[in-house]
Amino acid sequence: MKKSLLLLILIMLATTIAACSGSNNGGNTTTNSTKTPEATQEGNQTGNESNESAYKDKYDPPVTISTVWGIDPELKFKNNETIENNVATKWALDTLGIEIKSLWSVTDSNNAFQTKMRLSLNSGNDIPDVVTIGDAQLAHELIDSGLFREVGSLFDEYANDTWKQAMALDDNVWNPYTRNGERMGIPVLDYAYNHDYLLWIRQDWLDALKLEAPKTIAELEHVLEQFKNNNPSGLSPSEVTPLSMGTKMKLNTWMGDPSWIFGAFGTLPEQWNVAADGTLEYGSIHPGMKDGLALLHDWHSKGYIPQEIALWDENQTAVPAVAGTAGIIAGPYWMSGWPLSDTAVNDPDAVWKPYPIPTGEDGTAMRHGTHYTNGVTLISTKMEYPEAFFTYQNYLFDNYADPKEGGVFENGLFKNYDYDIADDGSLLRWDDIPGGYVNAVRYLLVRDGARIPDAQMKALMNLADGKEPVTRLEKEVKSSYGEETPAAAVVLLQQEDISYKDMFTGPPTESMNSKLDYLKKLELTAFNEIIYGNKDISAFDDFVKQWKADGGDQITAEVNEWYNGVK
């Protein structure tokens, strides 16, 4: 018995020592490992935990991350590069030992990327290791396909402190991509207020007509009438688009946006707002929509807004602005750099200035508020080295999103692409870069690289206060953005209290999955018919009844069930 007891104690002691030695890295996953990727992956697959992290700052031999691309039609290339082979893919291989492999690419116009992604999904083609999705509906379809893995545990283990602190600025960023408590997609962080909008107005036209910038909707209407019928540039009424906007895709968007019109009447369409009783209500069925639609119909009949407004998407709304034939367009604070700087090519006397959103008769104003995210990154269940994605993004968060003085990205991403340096050591303006400016950040695996939500506005406020640019973001704004950008940011923050974010940030509800597509088409069709005058304004009441009966009431109940669980 004594021998048996002694043997049992020795076995227990040996087991304890082995368990301790197998977990002695204390969760430290950001140190380099000498273990090969193959050995690490094999150990993970068999469940044999290694005491060394799979994560590396650089992989040798290199590892591969496959992806797919939706290429912005405006994106430029130089030096015979392509989205598959360019300065960013070379940087990733040389610096991180990561080879970016493209499975396919498509120019992303008319939803081409979404269409290609869905076809690829349904045809059984290879699924990319990593894909960044900007379209919410497509993102949820991919998550629900089961082809992409849970990522929250990877983020907790491998993301560095800079990235984690940026993500922690808003606890809600994970909500849309959480399923049964599991985080299924990594939110792509965006700058705060990046898609809040203000009015860009032709200041030279205001001055020539001796007009003040409109503070109310009534004053705005007077300005629109003058821009059209007494145009200072000598344009005939038929040539002028006094207020450029589009409703082809939606009524709540990022440029040429019409939703602020409804904000003057107390609602914002196509998003969930807090009602007077504290519940969430769908803004498009609010009574204020009826007044806004009646106004837009009136303006359409007078030629104040585009006659083909239902055929104009966001990019189309910029066309008359750049051509010098539009007087006002709603859009973000950064628009003076793109696309409005191009107006000078067609009208050298054009001067665009930023102004606040006009109010309704009772002083009400509302604008769509920007969430801290603009998409999501998904990781395939079959990705062999998922930790490599974090090597890639950690480098960008530490060196690009929050670059240190003297760091590799202190002036920008890639010299002679998005920045260049003059002979005297100063940064060249973006339009003086030899061979042309290239928005090379769009070459990166995650759109816009890496962003800390509050960093951009801090940089803008410093420049607006007259400080010399020191940080990478300050230098970027100074050299690569329009000259009115800091002033526009000031105007934007003057109306900070009218910014309203979509309050539903959860995943699609059960009824949304089956009804939302239909209800969106119903809504857009009904609103455009009212604006065009094909139906009387009373058609709005018919739309509301049909929306509620055809699934809207059930969706509202589900949305509020979610809201009650998180507020």
Mean pLDDT: 90
Give the N-to-C terminal Cα separation: 62 Å
Describe the global form.
Answer: globular
The number of distinct helices, counting runs of at least 4 residues, comes to: 19
Helical content (DSSP H or I, runs of 4+): 25-40%
Overall strand count? 15
Strand order of the largest sheet: 8-11-7-12
Strand-pairing-aware structural class: alpha/beta
Percent in strands: 5-15%
Main beta sheet, described? 4 strands, mixed
Low-pLDDT windows of residues: 1-49
Radius of gyration: 27 Å
Question: What are its keywords?
Answer:
567 residues; alpha/beta; 15 strands; 12% strand; disordered N terminus
Summarize the structure.
With 567 residues, this protein is of the alpha/beta class.
What are the SSEs and their pairings?
Elements: H1 2-21, H2 37-46, E1 63-71, H3 87-96, E2 98-107, H4 112-123, E3 130-133, H5 136-144, H6 152-158, H7 161-167, E4 178-179, E5 182-183, E6 186-189, E7 198-202, H8 203-208, H9 217-229, E8 241-244, H10 259-263, E9 272-274, E10 280-282, H11 288-302, H12 314-323, E11 326-331, H13 343-346, E12 352-355, E13 367-368, E14 373-379, H14 387-401, H15 455-464, H16 472-480, H17 485-494, E15 499-500, H18 510-532, H19 539-566
Parallel strand pairs: 1-2, 8-11, 13-15
Antiparallel strand pairs: 3-14, 4-5, 6-14, 7-11, 7-12, 9-10
Helix pairs in contact: 11-18, 15-16, 15-17, 18-19
